[in-house]
Amino acid sequence: MSSTKRLLASIHDVGPRFEAEVDQLAELLENRLGQGRFAMLVVPDHWGAAPLREDKAFQSRLRAWSDSGIEMFVHGWFHRDTARHVGAASFKARHMTAGEGEFLGLDEATALRLMREGKALIEDAIGREVAGFIAPAWLYGEGSLAALRQAGFALAEDHWKVWNATSDRVLAKGPVITWASRSTARTASSLAFAALARTVLPHALDTVRIAVHPGDVTKPSLLSSIDATLSRFARSHHPARYADLS
């Protein structure tokens, strides 16, 4: 296996609200990739109903995961999108997520404040720097992108690339392989794409990204597809860290 071929895997929406689901996904990833060979995307207060700041027990779990080698990313603040959108942003908000694109419509000052507060909160919990920032639903508006360049993060990611958050230098290209649980049609589409990716992408991409979400555990078909996809890419791509890109 070439050391230049990397597999980057991540668990999204990590926080007290989905602790049981995160445990199940972490076990699945660890079984296929090894201890600490994936990332967690942490939401400071998911939909305003699960504040990490007040949950010392979950903060301790984050630190233990981080100590084991798992990279920690700031993943928005609330994760919920409350902005009113027009034009292309309106299309993205309706069709690329279900009210989850929190950083799509934020102005620069608000985005920067939430980024810095999330960074400080999670770094205090884990006792080290976070790996970077990834917006909920991978959606960024102009204000969020401008804020990102000032917030002090090393890395950022969207659907199609990973980049240096300060310089904008692209570090890896290619689609994220992910799954959808919120409708039968979206589930079927995500299963089909994952099957295609297992055939095409091992030869096409040096860096492959796989992302899983708490909702994935609600459907056995998704868990089976995730397991098959992790297994396939672990044979051709080395389970790596996002920091290896920089």
Walkthrough of the structure:
It comes from Novosphingobium mathurense. This is Polysaccharide deacetylase. Pfam families: DUF2334 (PF10096). One of its GO terms (biological process) is carbohydrate metabolic process. This protein is of the alpha/beta class and 246 residues long. 46% of the residues are buried. The chain has helices spanning 19-33, 56-67, 87-95, 108-126, 142-148, 184-204, 220-236, and strands spanning 6-14, 39-42, 71-74, 132-133, 155-157, 161-164, 170-173, 176-177, 207-212, 238-239. It has a single domain (6-245), classed as TIM Barrel (Alpha-Beta Barrel). It is built from seven helices and ten strands.
Keywords:
single chain; about 250 residues; alpha/beta; TIM Barrel; ten-stranded mixed sheet; 7 helices; about 15% strand; globular
- Average predicted confidence as pLDDT: 92
Task: Report the radius of gyration as a whole number of Å.
Answer: 17 Å
Q: How many distinct beta strands?
A: 10
What structural category characterises the helix and strand content? alpha/beta
Oligomer: single chain
CATH architecture: Alpha-Beta Barrel
Could you name the CATH topology? Answer: TIM Barrel
The termini sit apart by 21 Å
Q: Helix and strand succession?
A: EHEHEHHEHEEEEHEHE
The residue fraction in helices comes out at 40-55%
Number of helices: 7
Q: Can you summarize the main beta sheet?
A: 10 strands, mixed
